[in-house]
Amino acid sequence: MEILSLLDALEDAIESAVSVPFSGKCMVDRNEILELIQDIRLKLPDDIKQAKWVSKERSRILAEAQQEADNIVKNAESRIAAMVNEHEISRKAYEQAETILNNAKKSAREIRLGTREYADSILGRVEEMLKEMLEVIQENRNELKQK
């Protein structure tokens, strides 16, 4: 990510700054630091867009899973309707349809759970990255304010 490289550059600029004798402070090039901070601000919206994309992708995957589950259920219902004509066939059809329907519901539930876990995992990683970046920025700002 570009923000991480910008934060590394900010850290390098601070670490390579000239130390003020007898203090824990240093002198930095104000323009260089402000330029890095501005670049970080410009890059943050890209990360936010990525998080929104992950959220939309999650919704799309859930919608596809629901559509697939609906199709499986419709197919099962069609099979049931086709087998209703004869008594013995009807009994077997109801048993088989019930099994198919239960399997379809189970598959749909597993697909939904899997996509939710996947989307949650992605969103969690993006959230952690954003938290880490925010913490680094806040620490750097605090250091700049103290100096």
Structure description:
With 147 residues, this protein is mostly helical. The chain has one domain. The two termini are 28 Å apart.
In short:
By secondary structure, this protein is mainly α.
Annotation keywords:
rod-shaped, 147 residues, two-stranded antiparallel ribbon
Cα(first) to Cα(last) distance is: 28 Å
Task: Indicate the structural class.
Answer: mainly alpha
Note the beta-strand portion. Answer: under 5%
Q: What are the low-pLDDT stretches, counting only 5+ consecutive residues below 50?
A: none
Order of helices and strands: HEEHH
How would you characterize the largest beta sheet?
Answer: 2 strands, antiparallel
Tell me the helix content.
over 70%
The general outline is: rod-shaped
* Rg, nearest Å: 29 Å
Cross-sheet strand order for the largest sheet: 1-2
Number of strands: 2
Number of helices: 3
Count of spatially separate domains = 1
Average pLDDT: 85
SSE layout:
Blueprint: H1 2-15, E1 18-19, E2 26-27, H2 30-83, H3 87-146
Antiparallel strand pairs: 1-2
Helix pairs in contact: 1-2, 1-3, 2-3
